[in-house]
Amino acid sequence: MRYFEDFKPGEVIELGSRSISKESIIAFAKEFDPQVFHLDEEAAKQTIYGGLLASGCHTGSLMMRLLWDGMLKDT
């Protein structure tokens, strides 16, 4: 087990990556963040983003999962 005091300033920890689908972006948005640029690909093209955009809550949740899998579960 690794404790938080074992982490050193400047230490780099690779957490990997995760791809998400258009369908998962829309499904998450329907339940938690129903803004047009998360839900409707055509309508999202008319926004400043120019296309479908994953919710910040969704990407934050994915980051938390990467953090858990990459280091926290053994800390």
Structure description:
The chain has 75 residues and is mainly α. It is 45% helix and 0% strand. The model has no long low-confidence stretch (mean pLDDT 94). It has a single domain, classed as Hotdog Thioesterase (Thiol Ester Dehydrase, Chain A). It is built from 4 helices and no strands.
How would the blueprint of this fold be written?
Blueprint: H1 22-32, H2 36-39, H3 41-44, H4 56-70
CATH C-level category = Alpha Beta
Q: Can you write the helix and strand succession as a string?
A: HHHH
Q: How many domain units?
A: 1
- How does CATH name the architecture? Roll
What amount of the residues lies in strands? under 5%
Helix amount, in percent? 40-55%
Give a quick precis of the structure:
This protein has 75 residues and is mainly α. The protein has helices at 22-32, 36-39, 41-44, 56-70.
Supply the key terms:
75 residues; mainly alpha; Thiol Ester Dehydrase, Chain A; 45% helix
